Amino acid sequence: MDPANALPPKVLVTGAGGFVGAAFVARLGSHRRIAMGGPGWREEVAGSDYRDAVVVHLAARVHQPRGDAADFERDNVDKTRVLAEAAAAGGAARFVFASTVKVHGEETRGAPFRPDSPPAPADDYARSKWRAEEALRDIASRTGLPVVVLRIPLTYGPGVGGNFRDLLRLADSGAWLPLAAIRNRRSLVHVRDLADALMLAAGHPQAPGRAYVAAHPVPASTPELVTLIRASLGRPSRLFPVPASALEAAATVVGLRDRMRRLTRSLEADPATLVAALGWSPRVSLADGVAEAAAWRGEGAR
Which CATH number is 3-156+188-218+267-284's, of 3.40.630.30, 3.40.50.11290, 3.30.470.20, 3.40.50.720? Predict the structure, then answer.
């Protein structure tokens, strides 16, 4: 099915100007925006018309090098709760929440995370997303608001920021990198495939009442990603082997343990439920998606 055909005429989107939001609204077409970032966000929420609308909540605090737990609590938990309560009271048809696979933890050992994996959030961001999910379950139970949760891994594509942009920058350096011995498995999703998953979450009649993982079914290792990026940029791979344990030990000494573990450890997620229940089928291969992101980097993105 084309999920766009199942959408009501009224779709309200938060975070529409962000990396994921821009890709989603481009797929969506007609929509209305709710601004959650300014001091008047409560007025925005209170003044919106929710009757028979689908609310897609993408706005969130993600990268916050100088923030604290209170910032994440306010932006990711309190704002989600206020928005969902308003949507329920206003007669919304559905509430779609963009969460993270990190509600299950920072790494996998053998088995990938699935929607029914136990929660084990390890940082302020992941904990805030899990508490937001708990708040939505409570609101759904009390009010009958249909809720869909989409847990998302590392998202990439042209215009990407955060960790994947850092990886693009590292690969573009041309330096020899001690990553050849790493055998990890990291799940990713291209931003256009994620937009399609959000469309299904917003429009598929069977979507509400469940959580789904939106990850490409084929994970990638760090050496594979760096090699693909460098090939797309016309560079040799230039990788040499150093044990992951040695890299992590050295990074710990200089206060970069967590950043190194994102390169050495696995974080794999299984999208089987989203594929089977809603018919999601990622269309962008890892090679094509990385080449596209690398081309954007090569065109001057810094």
Answer: 3.40.50.720
- The residue among 130, 74, 136 whose CA lies nearest residue 99 is 130
Question: Domain limits of the chain?
Answer: 3-156+188-218+267-284
- The conformation of residue 267, written as its DSSP 8-state character, comes to B
Backbone φ and ψ for 161, nearest 5 degrees, come out as -120, -160
In this prediction, residue 66 has a pLDDT band, given cuts at 50, 70 and 90, of low
pLDDT at residue 127, as a whole number:
96
Q: Among 149, 162, 148, 174, which Cα is nearest to 229's?
A: 174
3-state secondary structure 203-222: HCCCCCCEEEECCCCCCECH
3-state DSSP call for residue 131?
helix
